[in-house]
């Protein structure tokens, strides 16, 4: 501790500010977009990556000087932003708010894949043309680029502040942010406002990509995802949609990470970032720098999930489909098809779990991979260390996940809308990082080796039909339970919470208890799915259940129709099956997948089978 | 169910593929990342594979049959690598499988290959338990138990580090390497005064380096890949660290020099594969690689090349039956190798012993032999 108070303390502070500085560049753009469209733009990280590549092309291919390059990057990314708004988001204006969220995920995927195809996945150097002088501060130094980054961050925030305060278009932006319909009635061209906002935010995002690329002298097609995630966390700490708050939040995030490393070690960095975020959400959901302590009344209640008429599937057809699915291995011998469908059933259990909390209760969770991980590790460790038979370990893992998952998510119970999504995203990351760092139990980065296969009465069930049938049985069980639940008074209560929390509370519904119940059931299902995966894979580590699985699960649920039991299963089969179908396309297959996803959202935003 | 049936039908159609004229090719399945986070490594693999295919098929293939690859993109995701494994084992044309990249994806697929009796040959899989999957799981990935003492010899023995700080990527590979290195360094009389494990997608190392600095080491050891290794080297001086750096062989790549720039000047590393190595097998590889791609080969492309050449040799000598491949791997002797002097497997561990090791230092923007070192065939 003594060391901390001497020179190292100053160094850690400087380091924190430098990193926070970098986060701020992205957080400002995200805050601007959220302020106007109440949308977390998951494509923002990809715009940032595109900016870095435009900059690379200017430097390397055209030999352009830095100011020209900056202009080209800002211009190019502004155009990209306009295109994203026009092609990806405006057509969805009338549909549920969840559709644009998914569209930004799809656009990000497509942009990343295009960059990979155009520039190869190899990282590239992006040398900074700035003079390499450095200033000594404490034991370390800072360079010219650090100051330029700080200047761009603060300068752009100041410009934005002035723009929003003092210009007519700025007023229009703020009016649109406050109430889109009212603004439109007052004659504000809402579309023009959105276009302007996307252009500005994307230009800023692109410039940040260029600057950060120069800072690290490295760019690659996947640099956007992690950076975008940090930007989201930072703006959340500052208060969603609050531009100056985003900068303060970024610096605070940088400092927290730096001090966290100083006190506990390098591999705790992101753990601290996400714990702080969840704490802020739980204690001051409106951000640290906002006056109000409550979340703003998001105009989301009841509209987050689009009302639609679900496709009615007659009971006899469901039975026929179920029997056909069960009999499939008798007709199809191809082990690859059975394994792929078995995977689809495993994801269907996960999707069922998510559609209950996201669709029925309206808590859009982006942390379901965390529940999967808890289930997988619980079952693997129970089977290996406690010598429990697999047939007992799997349901036990379901119970563990139900309890632990509900406890972990409970701080998010008082949140609504996007805040729930971001909080659960953070909780999912926390689970992964705890698994990585809690070595005595989870074996840390080495992972769990030699997990026994699925078995019954001591006979291992390794062959493809069993890897198909067992998950299918889990799907049937969970779907049955869930259908019963939704048909009962509980289902009505849960949907009432989704439609209007205030009204539900006024009717005497204890919100926390019902949310807890829903997460308990969902946790049990997700835990079972994770446990089965662990026994099928035989080896798991902290990367087996990574964050993109949460996004994939949400995509399945939205694709099938939120809250729709049959839809969740259909969504899982489609999204596990599609990439396999496109296998012949090799490097292009994820691009085709992304485009397919965008088309589905565009033409069927309420999901294939409709929301319930 | 329509969609399911259609998926099934299409998948079968895709798996079958078009019929080929001429003798049936000897088909090698590859499961690896072509898209997703690890795509850069899959792309390096492909470069090495293509070169090896040109060479093998130019010399008459496998007893007159052309050697062919079926590269399936797994994104290094266990869900997909297991499905790919089912696909490969069900396809009688596949005689042996190479890959996957990450431990999570590779080891999830091992039981499928083992149960079906198809050799899974991992050439970058250094997880200590990888080959324990069964007698059909083989690997020629450098064994850390051999590699880390060599690194410790360099750092402690040759460069005289007494107080070592280790920065390692917090994965199965990095963690195992760090532990083995710490043991080897301690045995050689040095103390490990700091060990910092960082996350795989980390970009900022300043805070970690301040901790390293405050432990007052006299030398720094990196257990890193080339991108993160270059990043650490760049940030060293920003916290005022000037100690000598020794990096594990995995940084050996032209990209390390490109991304690190001036900052990697003076960094020491060891590599089993070095382009200036006079052995004819190395010179032939380097010449055809630079002719084809215009850049120097790196650790991943050279291992992919090496693995496929080795497999081709096994198929030539022992035939293309799946079981023959396993028996062949156990018996094959003295295959010339770029990465190893000659290859021979230990039939018990199913790994290769004693990789070569050359001591290098970055000098004037390129890897050069270290003056004080010698090209030691360990």
CATH architecture of the largest domain in chain B: 3-Layer(aba) Sandwich
Give the overall silhouette of chain B: globular
Q: What share of the residues of chain A lie within helices?
A: over 70%
Mean pLDDT across all amino acids of chain A: 86
Query: What is the CA–CA distance across the termini of chain A?
Result: 56 Å
What portion of the residues of chain A fall into strands of 2 or more residues?
under 5%
Placed side by side, the strands forming the largest sheet of chain B appear as 7-6-8-9-10-15-16
Largest contact between protein chains? Answer: A-B, 89 and 82 residues
Give the CATH level 1 class of the largest domain in chain B.
Answer: Alpha Beta
Structural class call of chain A reads mainly alpha
Question: How is the CATH topology of the largest domain in chain B named?
Answer: Rossmann fold
Chart the SSEs and their pairings.
The complex is a heterodimer of chains A (612) and B (378).
Chain A: H1 2-5, H2 7-37, H3 44-61, H4 66-89, H5 98-119, E1 134-137, E2 140-143, H6 144-166, H7 168-178, H8 180-185, H9 190-216, H10 223-238, H11 243-264, H12 269-283, H13 315-331, H14 335-360, H15 368-384, H16 390-409, H17 417-437, H18 439-442, E3 455-456, E4 459-460, H19 464-487, H20 489-499, H21 501-506, H22 511-537, H23 548-560, H24 565-581, H25 589-603
Chain B: H1 2-16, E1 26-32, H2 39-58, E2 67-73, H3 78-90, E3 94-99, H4 103-116, E4 120-122, E5 137-139, H5 144-158, E6 163-169, H6 172-187, E7 191-198, H7 206-214, E8 219-223, H8 226-236, E9 245-247, H9 254-260, E10 268-271, H10 280-293, H11 299-318, H12 322-331, E11 335-336, E12 342-343, E13 345-346, E14 351-352, E15 358-363, E16 366-369
Parallel strand pairs in B: 1-2, 1-3, 3-4, 4-5, 6-7, 6-8, 8-9, 9-10
Antiparallel strand pairs in B: 10-15, 11-12, 13-14, 15-16
Helix pairs in contact in B: 2-11, 3-4, 5-6, 8-9, 11-12
């Amino acid at each position: 501790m003594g060391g901390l108070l001497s020179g190292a303390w100053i160094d850690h502070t400087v380091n924190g500010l430098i990193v926070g500085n970098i986060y701020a560049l992205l957080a400002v753009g995200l805050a601007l977009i959220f302020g106007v469209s109440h949308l977390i733009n998951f494509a923002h990280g990809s715009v940032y990556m595109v900016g870095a590549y435009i900059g690379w092309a200017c430097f390397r291919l055209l030999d352009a000087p830095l100011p020209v390059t900056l202009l080209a990057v800002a211009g190019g990314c502004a155009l990209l932003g306009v295109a994203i708004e026009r092609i990806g988001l405006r057509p969805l204006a009338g549909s549920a708010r969840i559709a644009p969220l998914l569209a930004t995920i799809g656009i990000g995927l497509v942009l990343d894949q295009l960059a990979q195809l155009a520039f190869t996945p190899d990282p590239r150097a992006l040398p900074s043309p700035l003079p390499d002088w450095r200033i000594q501060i404490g034991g370390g130094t800072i360079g010219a680029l650090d100051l330029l980054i700080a200047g761009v961050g603060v300068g752009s925030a100041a410009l934005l502040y002035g723009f929003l305060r003092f210009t007519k278009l700025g007023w229009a932006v703020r009016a649109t942010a406050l109430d889109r319909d009212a603004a439109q009635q007052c004659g504000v061209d809402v579309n023009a406002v959105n276009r302007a906002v996307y252009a500005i935010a994307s230009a800023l995002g692109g410039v940040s990509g260029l600057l950060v690329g120069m800072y690290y002298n490295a760019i690659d097609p996947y640099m956007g995802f992690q950076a975008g995630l940090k930007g989201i966390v930072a703006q959340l700490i500052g208060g969603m949609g609050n531009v100056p708050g985003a900068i303060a939040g970024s610096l605070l995030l940088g400092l927290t990470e730096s001090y966290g490393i100083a006190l506990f070690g390098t591999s705790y960095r992101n753990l601290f970032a996400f714990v702080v975020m969840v704490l802020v959400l739980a204690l001051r959901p409106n951000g640290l720098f906002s006056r109000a302590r409550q979340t703003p009344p998001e105009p989301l209640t009841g509209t987050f999930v689009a009302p639609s008429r679900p496709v009615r599937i007659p009971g006899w057809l469901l039975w026929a489909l179920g029997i056909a699915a069960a009999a499939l291995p008798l007709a199809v011998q191809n082990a690859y098809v059975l394994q792929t469908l078995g995977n689809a059933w495993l994801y269907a259990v996960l999707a069922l779990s998510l559609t209950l909390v996201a669709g029925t209760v309206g808590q859009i969770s982006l942390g379901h991979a965390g529940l999967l991980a808890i289930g997988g590790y619980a079952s693997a460790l129970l089977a290996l260390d406690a010598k429990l038979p697999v047939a007992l370990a799997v349901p036990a893992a379901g119970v563990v996940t139900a309890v632990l998952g509900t406890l972990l998510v409970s701080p998010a119970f008082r949140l609504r809308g996007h805040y729930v999504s971001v909080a659960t995203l953070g909780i999912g990351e926390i689970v992964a990082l705890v698994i990585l760092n809690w070595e005595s139990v989870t074996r840390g980065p080495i992972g769990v080796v030699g997990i026994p296969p699925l078995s019954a009465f001591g006979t291992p069930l390794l062959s493809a039909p069993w890897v198909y049938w067992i998950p299918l049985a889990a799907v049937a069980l969970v779907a049955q339970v869930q259908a019963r639940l939704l048909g009962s008074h509980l289902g009505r209560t849960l949907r009432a919470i989704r439609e209007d929390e205030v009204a539900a509370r006024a009717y005497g519904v204890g919100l926390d208890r019902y949310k807890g119940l829903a997460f308990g059931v969902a946790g049990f299902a997700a835990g079972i799915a994770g446990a089965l995966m662990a026994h099928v894979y035989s080896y798991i580590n902290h990367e087996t259940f990574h964050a993109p699985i949460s996004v994939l699960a949400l995509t399945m649920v939205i694709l099938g129709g939120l809250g729709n039991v049959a839809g969740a299963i259909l969504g899982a089969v489609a999204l596990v099956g599609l990439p396999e179908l496109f296998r012949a396309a090799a490097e292009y297959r994820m691009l085709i997948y992304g485009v397919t996803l965008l088309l589905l959202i565009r033409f069927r935003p309420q999901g294939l089978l409709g929301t319930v | 169910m329509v969609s399911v049936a259609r998926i099934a039908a299409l998948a079968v159609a895709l798996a079958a593929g078009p019929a080929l004229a001429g003798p049936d090719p000897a088909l090698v399945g590859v499961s690896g990342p072509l898209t997703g986070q690890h795509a850069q490594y899959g792309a390096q693999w492909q470069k090495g594979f293509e070169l090896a295919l040109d060479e093998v098929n130019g010399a008459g293939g496998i007893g007159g049959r052309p050697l062919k690859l079926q590269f399936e993109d797994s994104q290094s995701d266990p869900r997909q690598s297991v499905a790919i494994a089912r696909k490969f084992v069900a396809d009688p044309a596949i005689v042996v499988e190479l890959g996957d990249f990450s431990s999570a994806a590779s080891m999830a697929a091992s039981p499928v290959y083992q149960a079906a009796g198809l050799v899974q040959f991992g050439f970058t899989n250094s997880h200590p338990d990888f080959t324990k999957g069964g007698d059909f799981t083989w690997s020629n990935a450098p064994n850390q138990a051999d590699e880390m003492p060599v690194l410790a010899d360099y750092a402690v023995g040759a460069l005289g580090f007494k107080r070592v700080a280790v920065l390692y990527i917090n994965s199965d590979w990095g963690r195992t390497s760090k532990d083995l290195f710490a043991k080897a360094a301690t045995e050689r009389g040095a103390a490990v005064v700091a060990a910092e494990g960082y996350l795989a997608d980390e970009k900022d190392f300043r805070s970690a380096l301040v901790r390293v600095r405050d432990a007052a080491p006299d030398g720094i050891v990196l257990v890193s890949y080339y991108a993160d290794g270059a990043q650490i080297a760049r940030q060293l001086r920003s916290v005022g660290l000037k100690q000598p750096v020794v990096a594990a062989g995995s940084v050996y790549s032209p990209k390390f020099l490109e991304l690190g720039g001036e900052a990697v000047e003076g960094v020491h590393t060891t590599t089993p594969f070095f382009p200036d190595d006079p052995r004819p097998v190395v010179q032939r590889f380097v010449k055809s690689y630079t002719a084809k791609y215009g850049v120097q080969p790196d650790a991943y492309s050279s291992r992919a090349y090496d693995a496929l050449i080795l497999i081709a040799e096994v198929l030539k000598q022992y035939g293309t039956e799946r079981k023959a491949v396993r028996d062949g791997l156990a018996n094959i002797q003295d295959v010339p190798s770029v990465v190893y002097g000659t290859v021979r497997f230990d039939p018990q561990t199913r790994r290769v012993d004693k990789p070569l090791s050359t001591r290098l230092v970055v000098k004037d923007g390129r890897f050069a032999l270290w003056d004080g070192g010698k090209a030691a065939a360990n």
